[in-house]
Amino acid sequence: MFWLRLVPDDTKIQFMRGRILGLATSAFLSIASVILFFHPGLNYGVDFKGGITFQITTPQPADFSVLRSDIDDLGFGQAQLQQFGSPNDVLVRMEAQPTDQLQQKAYETIKQTLIDKVPGVVVGASDSVGGTVSGELFTNGMLALGLALVAMLFYIWFRFEWQFGVGAVVTMILDVTKMVGIYVVSGFEFNLTSIAALLTVLGYSVNDKVVVYDRVRENLRLYKAMPLRQLIDLSINQTLNRTIGTSLATFLACLPLAIWSGEALQQFAVVILIGVVVATTSSIFIAAPILLFLGEDKLFRKKAPPAAPADGKPASKGA
């Protein structure tokens, strides 16, 4: 049976040699992302800054590019269109206008324009999303992210030791800040779908870190005399084939969505693609170095000798 191995079994890359550079680069990107979050800030969607939504039904399957062009040309801000039910049903979301009167005027203008340009179209009643509701949605979304981080901390802490839990959660916080920076730089609309994307990246990130940490824990029992730095390198190399294979499979599965899907799903897929890369690299260059710094003198009962076996074989019972 043919089995494709992306990484040879005898790979011995010394990842921990780049631990300082990896942590410094991650810290720089995360700090830059936090600064970008405050200025210029995220491009909040209707869900988080308010606006109007309404449904339209076209006599033929909707042409999103034409509809979006017709609405955007009116100058009321960028419209977000999403298929809603059948190919003929479209959900339109518009940015909030300065006053309620202008918001109602924008809806009436858009409605009349669509009726004139798309014969047979049916425009449903508008539904406004106020600032209070959108603020609550944003708060609840951030709360969901925070609770997810806390739940993951307790899960990893319970399964491993506190050094593993702290390392994983700190890494995931850095991952999330980088993803927020991606939203700012790309100009993608930040809405409830974005929260779902961030939670998806968090889930993938913690899964990847558990794989590496689980191998570290197994090797801690096998190689009691091996220095922690060498043991972590060994563990990463042993799981590298699975890590790259899983990441590549996820990446290829999302790639068609990022290229050929609609605008809303396309942005979601692009964020997932970037998140897979960020989560995979952070497991190696951030989570592992943090574990090394936190557990250097705490994860071993027996102090390692000056020279450890380089072939990765378990130490003898008399060692």
Q: Quick gist of this model?
A:
This protein has helices at 19-38, 46-49, 64-72, 100-117, 131-159, 162-186, 192-222, 228-260, 263-295, and strands at residues 43-44, 51-57, 80-83, 89-95, 122-123, 127-129, 189-190. With 319 residues, the protein is α+β, with helices and mostly antiparallel strands. It folds into 2 domains: 15-41 and 134-294, Multidrug efflux transporter AcrB transmembrane fold (Up-down Bundle); 51-129, Alpha-Beta Plaits, CATH 3.30.70.3400.
Please identify, by name, the CATH architecture of the largest domain: Up-down Bundle
Specify the structural class. Answer: alpha+beta
In whole angstroms, the N-to-C terminal distance is: 40 Å
Total domain count:
2
Please give the radius of gyration in angstroms.
25 Å
Question: How would the global form be characterised?
Answer: elongated
The average pLDDT value, as a whole number, equals: 83
CATH class categorisation of the largest domain: Mainly Alpha
Count of separate DSSP helical elements: 9
Query: Secondary-structure element order, as H and E?
Result: HEHEHEEHEEHHEHHH
* CATH level-3 fold name of the largest domain: Multidrug efflux transporter AcrB transmembrane fold
- Strand percent estimate: 5-15%
- Residue windows where pLDDT falls under 50 for at least 5 positions: 300-305
Q: What kind of sheet is the major sheet?
A: 5 strands, antiparallel
CATH homology superfamily name of the largest domain: Multidrug efflux transporter AcrB transmembrane domain
The number of strands is 7
